[in-house]
Automatic annotation (TrEMBL):
<feature type="domain" description="MoaB/Mog">
    <location>
        <begin position="15"/>
        <end position="159"/>
    </location>
</feature>
<protein>
    <recommendedName>
        <fullName>Molybdenum cofactor biosynthesis protein B</fullName>
    </recommendedName>
</protein>
<dbReference type="InterPro" id="IPR001453">
    <property type="entry name" value="MoaB/Mog_dom"/>
</dbReference>
<comment type="pathway">
    <text>Cofactor biosynthesis; molybdopterin biosynthesis.</text>
</comment>
<dbReference type="InterPro" id="IPR013484">
    <property type="entry name" value="MoaB_proteobac"/>
</dbReference>
<comment type="function">
    <text>May be involved in the biosynthesis of molybdopterin.</text>
</comment>
<dbReference type="InterPro" id="IPR012245">
    <property type="entry name" value="MoaB"/>
</dbReference>
<dbReference type="Pfam" id="PF00994">
    <property type="entry name" value="MoCF_biosynth"/>
</dbReference>
<keyword id="KW-0501">Molybdenum cofactor biosynthesis</keyword>
<dbReference type="InterPro" id="IPR036425">
    <property type="entry name" value="MoaB/Mog-like_dom_sf"/>
</dbReference>
<comment type="similarity">
    <text>Belongs to the MoaB/Mog family.</text>
</comment>
Amino acid sequence: MSHLANDKQTFLNIAVLTVSDTRNEDTDTSGRYLAEALTEAGHTLGDKQIVIDDVYQIRAILSKWIADPSIDCVISTGGTGFTARDNTPEAVNVLFDKDIEGFGELFRHISYTEIGTSTVQSRALGGFANKTVIFCVPGSTNACKTAWKKILLEQLNSTHKPCNFVPHIGQK
């Protein structure tokens, strides 16, 4: 699998979507964290939006980004729990061409060391749609930090060995 890493760093154009019925630009600490973290890593913030937790509004924004050849990756935050208003997995799953089962599994494994058994209430998920990689993480800022620092920072780094997601992204 070492052929899937590159010695030259490739930076991505990443969109951030906050799914929330209550957050706005002033209170969106999770989306803000992700936007700052990805730019600090050298990537470009391609777009950032906040959407209410509505299946069709989530799909509309994601579909636009999936079709946009300039967007390589989407990270969404929020809507992954079990309340009646948590609809991100239902909105996103149908858009995937391929699931990344290991992302949710690894996120919950790492999260277990931080929040214990409460991690089972996370429906974090990942997948590919039209060569755009999409990751959906819980809405708390700490969950976003866990996902970014312990999984996404490396997997969105083209030099990470033995493999990363970058060779599978783009060329729509």
